[in-house]
Amino acid sequence: MIEDIIRSRRSVRRYKRDRPGRDVIEKLVEIAACAPSASNKQPWRFFVVDDAATIGRMAQAVQKAVERIARHVEPAFMDAFRAYGDYFVRFREAPVVIRSSSFCRTSSTRTLPWKTARQFERWSSTRASSAPRLRSRT
After folding, report:
1. What is the pLDDT of residues 86-119, one digit of tens each?
2. Cα–Cα dist 137/52, whole Å
3. Where are the chain's structural domains?
4. 43-78: pLDDT as tens digits
5. Are strands 97-102 and 44-49 parallel, antiparallel or unpaired?
6. Half-sphere exposure of 27 (CA within 13 A, CB side)
7. Measuring CA to CA, how many Å separate 86 from each of 7, 15, 44, 73, 134?
8. Which of 3, 75, 100, 114 could form a disulfide with 120 if both were Cys (CB 3.0 to 4.6 A apart)?
9. Would you tell me how many other CB atoms lie within 10 Å of the CB of residue 8?
């Protein structure tokens, strides 16, 4: 059974325009919530987006993040990085996007610097802008 699932897996690059029914979306979220997590803390939330304008804004935000990251890629690796093309924003054509977001607590129950998806995005973008350039392993 597991082998069949692994062998039949595929990467979706083009999406049908048909929106799945609410029952299908709810079932997918229910199944995703069963994924294993450390100490069974299940530190995630799922956001279902079916508004094309919102999906477009999400894709724009991801594209801006890719551009911020690109500024830290060494010129020798830029062609390989750019070869991904629109890999990170392929979801922009999907009729529905299910976005997962995690929140974490440290073992002392002190929260990390974010509590919401928006706070995480702000926190991670400040980290990306101060990240060192990627280096080769020569």
Report:
1. 888 989 989 999 988 876 554 444 444 545 556 5
2. 42
3. 12-129
4. 788 889 999 999 999 999 999 999 988 889 899 999
5. antiparallel
6. 5
7. 26, 14, 26, 17, 21
8. 114
9. 7
Tell me the whole-structure pTM to 2 decimals.
0.64
Give CATH for domain 12-129.
Answer: 3.40.109.10
Distance (Å, rounded) from C-alpha 118 to C-alpha 138? 38
Dihedral of the alpha carbons of 20, 36, 116, 90, in degrees to the nearest 10 = -40
Tokens of 111: 């929260």
